[in-house]
Design a protein that fits this description.
It holds the Pfam family AP_endonuc_2. The protein has 300 residues and is α/β, with parallel strands linked by helices. It contains eleven helices and twelve strands. It is 43% helix and 18% strand. Helix 3 packs across helix 4.
Length: 300
């Protein structure tokens, strides 16, 4: 169920805590399904209520298919988001590549509008070839252009969610993403806890360490803005350079632990959207995370 409230001059959607996968897992196709149109019903039957459609290799979805997915999502109460292409780089030293990256974001917003998705997840760029300060300042400038173009195109009701990234040469630390979100109060972060864990060389090992992240988020953006924040979660393998590979909940040699995050969600009385990125098991692990959350909450 969705609840609508006004925050300052913007309409915010109160979502209640939701769980779902990033993309379509192998089990979906093994069950005989072929089209993402079937995902909302399939997820609902599992007991899940969120779905992040993947445009990570390009926005190739047409209007008809997007609208069909959106109708099914509405029918089965599935909260939709879309992941924009991975190769977006608003910090490129080449102006033409930055311009193309803006277009990729706008294309993702268009697909989201067709689908009825309320959020898009964006990788903002890399500073592997440029100075860090220049990269951050450039991304803030280009992101402002994105917002203006999105508003002019009628996409102002879709939230852009810059993602915390897992590799040290990517523009995507917690502090950097919060700085980006400071340019417009409609922006909210995608807090990828696997990426935070990898970037911090295994920094999330207790509820207290997750709570510290939430303190930083609330202190920077305010409680109302982060209450329904967008999250990614999985276990992760990392090297000195950061993220290496996502793993499943059963791969217990890798962190972080979802139960630690669940404790803080309940303690803080927040209601995020939690998208699972477990390797090939994203729907099954999303359901397992929901069960962990409900058990701690005292539900069934």
């Amino acid at each position: 169920m969705l609840y609508l409230v006004w925050y300052n001059t913007f309409l915010w959607v109160i979502i209640l805590t939701r769980f779902g996968p990033s993309g379509n897992p192998e089990s979906f196709y093994n069950a005989g399904y072929k089209s993402s149109v079937d995902m909302p019903k399939w997820l609902s039957n599992m007991g899940l209520s969120a779905y992040e459609y993947q445009c990570n290799r390009g926005v190739r979805i047409g209007k008809e298919l997007a609208e069909r997915i959106g109708k099914e999502a509405l029918k089965y109460d599935i909260f939709l988001s879309i992941h924009a292409p991975y190769y977006i780089n608003l910090a490129s030293p080449e102006k033409e590549k930055r311009k193309k990256s803006i277009n990729y974001i706008i294309e993702t917003l268009k697909a989201a509008k067709w689908m009825g998705a309320k959020r898009i997840v964006v990788h903002t760029g890399s500073y592997s070839k440029v100075d860090k300060k220049w990269a951050l300042d450039t991304v803030k400038k280009e992101l402002s252009h994105v917002i203006k173009e999105a508003d002019a195109s009628g996409y102002s009701d879709i939230t852009i969610c810059p993602e915390i990234l897992g590799k040290n040469n990517q523009l995507g630390s917690l502090e950097e993403i919060l700085d980006l979100c400071s340019i417009d109060e409609r922006l909210i972060p995608t807090v990828d806890f696997a990426h935070l864990h990898a970037r911090g060389q295994g920094s999330l090992n207790s509820p207290a360490e997750f709570e510290k992240v939430w303190y930083i988020l609330e202190n920077s953006l305010g409680r109302e803005r982060v209450k329904n924040i967008h999250c990614h979660f999985s276990r992760v393998e990392f090297t000195k350079g950061g993220e290496k590979k996502h793993w499943t909940l059963k791969d217990t040699e890798f962190g972080p632990e979802f139960s630690h995050l669940a404790e803080i969600i309940l303690k803080k009385n927040i209601e995020p959207v939690i998208i699972c990125e477990s390797r090939e098991m994203m729907a099954e692990d999303a359901l397992e995370m929901k069960k962990i959350y409900q058990k701690l909450k005292g539900g069934v």
